[in-house]
Amino acid sequence: MQMKTYRKHIGILMLVFAAVACVERHPQLFGDIAGVYFNNRTSGVFSDERNVTFVYEDEDEVQIPVTVQLVGRPAPEDREVSITAVSDNAEEGVDYRLPERSVLPAGASSFEYIVTLLRTDAIKVNTKTITLEVHPNGNFSLPVTEMVQASGNVTTLEYRIVFSDMFTEPPVTWDKNILGDFSQQKFELICRVLDIKRSDFNDYEKMTLSFQVYIFNEMRRYIKDELAKKEAGEEYDEDIIDKVTGEPITFPSE
User: Fold this and answer.
1) Which residue has the higher pLDDT, 1 or 251?
2) CA–CA dist 161, 155 (Å, integer)
3) CA torsion 131→100→56→45, rounded to 10°?
4) What is the mean pLDDT of residues 91-113?
5) Residue 24: is its pLDDT beyond 90?
6) Minimal CA–CA distance to 68: which of 41, 33, 104, 31?
7) CA distance 85 to 98
8) Residue 243: CA count within 13 A, CB half-sphere
9) Cα–Cα distance measured from residue 166 to residue 28, given in angstroms and rounded to the nearest whole number
10) Helix orientation angle between 209-231 and 184-193, rounded to the nearest 10 degrees
11) The pLDDT of residue 31 is above 80
């Protein structure tokens, strides 16, 4: 009888301890935490960097959303997040713009911090880099500092944006036999004069061989007309002159 009573008391005490442990552990792990970190993924893999190219963009601005993740419970009010940007070769207001404020909205568990990249002549010859950094403030700490991946640990406190306006290779549909040697200047001249979307040059359904023959004919005619204006001392399109060679942009002979 005494043994049964003893076991009963032990069982009750274990249940009490388990309940107390659960009550105490919950706020320590989550409820009392208010933190943030950069949470960005590419094809499902966590990443601390994004590479951006303007070469197929028709606009002179590109908006890059950077996800800022909450650790803890959402709050009923907006909360400011401290984010800064540093760069060795990019200037705010010239090469990029940042939001006026970085705020986690009321009730939200994440938000997009939008960085606007600007197309300039400089990124046609140089790659630029911006590094975003998140800092602790009166609203948030930084409880998550890195993500563990098979390739190695990746920081969650910095996010790099690398951008340029340079081709590393011609568009996939570019037919050298029709359009001649590729150059970025020739590509941009074609798109501007014929009002063609840059991205169309990566779409075989749009950039058919017959359409490239049309481009060939129209651009040869355009360059011939602009050269005639130049020779007559009239205003002409200076982009028909190759900036490297100083000679007119050429297409293959018919």
Assistant:
1) 251
2) 14
3) 50
4) 97
5) no
6) 104
7) 8
8) 12
9) 50
10) 90
11) no
Q: Among candidates 204, 165, 164, 209, which has minimal Cα distance to 187? A: 165
CA 150 from chain centre, in angstroms, equals: 23
Structure tokens at 65: 């959303």
Q: What is the DSSP letter of 178?
A: H
Q: Under a CB-based contact definition with an 8 Å cutoff, are residues 194 and 219 in contact? A: yes
Whether the CB-CB separation of 109 and 74 falls below 8 Å is answered with: yes
The gap from C-alpha 103 to its chain's centroid, in whole angstroms, comes to 20
- Please give the Cα distance from 224 to 222 (Å, whole number): 5
pLDDT of amino acid 42: 82
pLDDT of 17 strictly over 60: no
Token pair 């094809």: residue: 43
Average pLDDT, rounded, for the chain: 89
Report pLDDT for 32. 78
Whole-prediction pTM value?
A: 0.80
Best CA proximity match to 89, nearest among 163, 8, 12, 146: 163
The length of the chain, given as a count of residues = 254
The residues, ordered by sequence, that sit 6+ positions from 121 with a Cβ below 8 Å of its Cβ are none
Instruction: Say which amino acid occupies 83.
Output: I
Contact 75, 36 (CB under 8 A): no
Q: Whole-angstrom Cα distance, residue 240 to residue 227? A: 8
